[in-house]
Amino acid sequence: MAKVLIVDDSRTSRKILKEILKVGGHEILGEASNGEEGVILYKECKPDVVTMDITMPNMNGLEALMCIKKEDGNAKVIMITAAGQKEKMVQAIKEGADDFITKPFDADQILGAIKRVLKSD
Ligand SMILES: [Mg+2]
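^ inputs. structure came back:
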């Protein structure tokens, strides 16, 4: 079981993620709707894993990834990308993203990624 922080500006995506995570036996520590909120919540709740959307207002997922990794080098961050964001994915790898999932995602992809990043400790 992992304690997860969900960062996504789409309420629908957050809802789907929450349901998948709950069914998988994980605990949702918090939800943020933009990168800035995500970084603040990360510091507050210290999750085991973050699911991070890339395209968001205020602060995008890449910037939030950088801030979180700066704060905690051991942070586990799974990037959720839309199709056609290859350049952003490459950038995210450079910034230390731990895994990637492309929208539209399914439960197996999400739960598999959580398992992988937790194992990589
Ligand atoms: Mg988005």
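The CA atoms of residues 20 and 108 lie 9 Å apart. Helices lie at 11-23, 35-45, 61-71, 86-94, 107-119.
thumbs up if we can close this ticket
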